[in-house]
Specification:
By secondary structure, this protein is α/β, with parallel strands linked by helices. It contains 15 helices and 27 strands. Among the domains are: 26-175, ANL, N-terminal domain (Rossmann fold, 3-Layer(aba) Sandwich); 437-536, 2-Layer Sandwich (GMP Synthetase, Chain A, domain 3), CATH 3.30.300.
Amino acid sequence: MTPASLTVDRSRSPARLSFEPGFNVATPFIDRHLAEGRGPKVAIRCAAGDVTYAELAERVNRCGNALLGLGIERGARVLMIVKDCPEFFYAFWGAIKAGLVPVPLNTMLRRDDYRYVIEDSQCAAVIWSPEFAGEVGPALAAVRRPPAVALPVEGSAGDLRGLIAAASPRLETAPAAATAACFWLYSSGSTGPPKGAVHRHRDMVATSQLYGADVLGVREGDLCFSAAKLFFAYGLGNGMTFPLWVGATSVLLDTRPTPQSTFEIIERHRPTLYFGVPTLYAAQLQALESQRPDLSSLRLCVSAGEALPADIFRRWKERTGLVILDGIGSTEALHIFISNREGDLRPGTSGKVVPGYQARIVAADGQEAARGESGRLRIRGPSTAAYYWGNPEKTAETMLEDDWLDTGDTYLLDADGYYQYCGRSDDMLKVGGIWCSPIEIESRLVSHPKVLEAAVIGAPDAAGLIKPEAYVVLREGVPPGHALADELMLHCKSHLAPYKFPRQIHFVAELPKTATGKIQRFRLRQMAEAEAARRGAGG
């Protein structure tokens, strides 16, 4: 059953979605469950306790009223630097139901990143979990025009929790439209600043039905546990929209995921679906060598964020008896659009196109690449972002004619119809499932007084996962050494998001460059590949 403003025809494959005028996506994801008698059922399970669907609906209403009561006007942006907790749900859906635009941000960013996004988004409000105050506070102090509203989720007078408790439990749903702006997610560019991808009210419906329900088979009896965080497009679906779409339960972890913490969650709460990223699966496999957690509740494991090496798939299946369904998605497409699936998978590939989406591989000449030849991957589907906020140039480069989206990834389609990832079409790195720019890491390295120049590439580690590696030219008279390499790593760690520091630092006399002085990163990648081959051959 779905609300009158939305019709889902499941007799077709893919399911056909029809939206009536005035559609607001909070209705099917939040309010519908009360009408369907799901009020007493647990919607959220976390360390702080359970939240039922009835409690969720009431607190969403209260939060929407609290935000409006602060003077935030409809259509204004509300930045959320919030950990995985029930308040994330309240703020996100409360804003949408009230006609505001929530903007979840990566909670691992630094003050300069937050300052930029606060200014770029022209937001009316910033909400943060107290754990992140050390970066958010200085960012707010540095912006030219601070937002009118800035408050923590908890821990002080006038915090969001207190405002929610004091607000009215009744909220009129703001009329919207399936194609109206609903929420934003920020995605980094290859060399430029972050870009705000503007998503529409229909987008979460599309991903939740076409991938969550139709490919993964998420159903009401499932418990979904996503190690990938809610601020991440992948985690937003896994941990929130997929379970809410079918009336299932979401299990939240509000701290950084580690093998130990994820195993503890699985043993305690017995989820049926587990969503991870290759880096975490690799760490969990290492932990499984010395411990035997009870994973018997799981019926399915999913991976995205970066390509899953076939060896990790094989070892995970040998250790646990479970398969990992790997796929590719993006911030701009909101979730996975090419995926392996139960009964139809090939390790080392991203699988096949999710029904309801289309894909094409375009060669350098602009024509469709032949089967088995690599090219730039483009996709089209009902969840792609409308545009980048305030960035018509990047919008034109990425959101193409006839609703095609340029993913920036290089792929090939093999003889059996499986899509195989060949790398990024630019120099961006995907580390732990999150994009980062080599320029940012290079800039931090060059800020060290002993460094003259630096270039960063992505190179596979022992598990086949991409990590940043740096090639550094030192200032004259500075001797290289292990102690200096450690010093430079610490220099990066102190000011960059934790996943961005270079795992290895190579000291070189000079960097390969073009005649105009541009660093040739492809030559550094060739050097890294040659070195890896030499080590593999025992040279």
